[in-house]
Write a structure and sequence with these properties.
alpha/beta
């Protein structure tokens, strides 16, 4: 008899999020899709078995008012939430801003999830919810300038993405500090459209590496493992790779960095 879980996931309609969702549904779990495009979500699940076990809430991570609305809708609808998978992300080859004026890597990969998790905190605490943040080995390139988190002075795709993925790990550790169960993970380098947004040299390297990349299903395996297994408490706040704890960068393990990120994030989402 399966222990059926209620699992909310962002970015559920493509890539790793889609593969994660399909597998979790097959295992009998109930899913809540938090997605920007609800029509696409309806099309995705139209031919699925057990599609009645999927509910859809509109949530545009690049629009903090949309995130606020989604969080409040979820609070109203869900009596319990076993797992929240902050999966959605993106990379951009030029400096773009969200609806609220934040650099887009920062907005989509971190700030939207930060606000969503913050709004859901009463439910997360009540349900003893597990929070899973999809990060990347790219977090090792993260070196934020705390006076320029929106990369107005010096922008690059690598800096934007690396910083955002570092924030995912720091955020995970902060949630563990605050008494929640939370894990970060590297899904692997996935053969998807991700590399299309990279600048020249990196795009070439991405193409050369394609034969060695994981499928989206393989990339989803660590998210699925963390969502469906109860782990020892000493692994709380850890960074995982291939279903095992992996040592994150020294900056990702910095208490000062995670406290500073939380403080700056609070300031940025204030008023939403």
């Amino acid at each position: 008899m399966i222990n059926t879980k209620t699992i909310a996931i962002t970015g559920a309609t493509s890539g790793i999020g889609l593969a994660t969702s399909e597998e979790l549904l097959k295992k009998g779990h109930h899913l809540i899709f938090l997605v920007r495009n609800t029509e696409k979500a309806q099309e995705v699940i139209a031919n699925w078995d057990k599609k009645e076990n999927v509910s859809i809430i509109k949530c545009d991570l690049a629009d903090l008012k949309s995130v606020r609305k989604a969080g409040e809708e979820l609070l109203q609808k869900a009596e319990k939430l076993d797992v929240l998978i902050n999966n959605a992300g993106g990379t951009f080859n030029e400096r773009l801003e969200s609806k609220d004026g934040f650099e887009l890597h920062l907005a989509v990969n971190h700030l939207g999830h930060f606000l969503l998790t913050k709004i859901l905190m009463p439910l997360l605490e009540k349900s003893n919810t597990k929070v899973i943040n999809v990060s990347s080995e790219a977090h090792r390139a993260g070196k934020p300038d705390w006076s320029d988190l929106n990369l107005k002075k010096k922008y690059s795709t690598i800096a934007g993405y690396g910083n955002a993925k570092l924030y995912n790990v720091l955020f995970t550790k902060s949630l563990a500090d605050k008494g929640l169960t939370s894990y970060a993970l590297h899904p692997g380098v996935i053969d998807s459209g991700f590399g299309d947004s990279l600048p020249g040299f990196f795009k070439l390297m991405w193409k050369l590496g394609k034969p060695f990349m994981k499928t989206t299903r393989e990339g989803a395996s660590t998210s699925i493992y963390l969502a469906t297994n109860d782990l020892p408490t000493d692994k709380n706040g850890a960074y995982f790779k291939d279903k095992k704890v992996n040592k994150a960068s020294s900056l990702a393990n910095s208490q000062a960095a995670r406290d500073r990120l939380w403080e700056e994030s609070e300031k940025m989402v204030e008023g939403f």
